[in-house]
Structures are given as C-alpha cells and as structure tokens.
Amino acid sequence: MGLPLRDGRLAKEDWNGIIENVDMRLSSWKGRLLSRGGRLVLINSVLSSISGYWLSIFKAPKWVIQAIVKRRRHFFWKGGMDRGGYGGVGIKNLAMHNLARLGRWWWELANDRDLIWVEIVKSNYFIRKKWYDLSSPASWSTTWKGILGAKELFDLGMEKKLGDGKSTSFWKERWCRNTRLA
Which domain of life is it from (predicted)? Predict the structure, then answer.
C-alpha cells in the first residue's frame, strides 16, 4: 500500500514522499491551459487522492499540510494573488479532511461493527476500558495516537442514546453544553 512500517513516529523523509508525489503530478499538468473549474476538479479529485490513504491512517504534521496546501494554491491561482483567506472557492480543507478520515475509524468502533480490525483494536487498546474512556499512553503506536487525535472532533458530533448503559457512560459523556458531568 506504500505505507512505511516503522516503530515510532514517521520520519520527515516518509512525509516528503507524499509532497514529492504531489509535485510530480503537478509538473505534468498544464495548468495555464485549464479553466479555474478544471484546476479545481484536479485539485479536489487527484491531489486529494494522492495523500488520501495516508491521511486516513496517520495524523499529518502541520508542516505537511501547509506544504501540500501551498502547492495546491499555487496551482489553482498559477502565481497570482493567493485569495485563500477571502472565502472558499471549493478546495477541500486538507487538515479537516485528515481529521474526518481518522474520525471514520471512530465511527466503526462506536458502532461495534463486526470487522476483524475492530476486534484487534479492542483486544489491544480497550482492555478494561470503553472507547470513550481512552487516552494515549506513550507506548501506543503512532497510528493509533493519530486516530485518537480525531476522537475529540468525533465526540463533538456524536449523539448518544441511553439504553442498557453498556456503551454509554452517564458521567463521562458530554450531555450539556459539551461538558461532562464528572
């Protein structure tokens, strides 16, 4: 799949591979011959898919997001003024895209999907804890820490219904104004 197998944090060289892939793709396109709409489609479909798989597994460092965003903006505006701060033109927010892809893992865990990876994660990380009680000890994998980084955003959009109490903690869920009772 092209993902690095490392013990610990990904090195800068690992992330540079994605940036180089974006650069290679951009160098083969003739941006000046395309309308802004054509460039927008290429940015949102092709460039997002280059980094998409990595962003669904790892939380990208800020410098990686900034480097890719800089290249996307330059391609879209083709050396013109960067108008990124004056409202959207339809280019996906890469940092939010990263969190959304990582949040998808939480969706699968929270819904107790009958998937093999869910069982593996539960047996490794959910020992004596529910998914909503997890924190990130130093011994956990970089991948899992990245996924755990999207948990807070996932919690904000999560709606819990009381049932038998097995998957909902009365004290630890966010009930009122996004605060916990305990």
Answer: Eukaryota
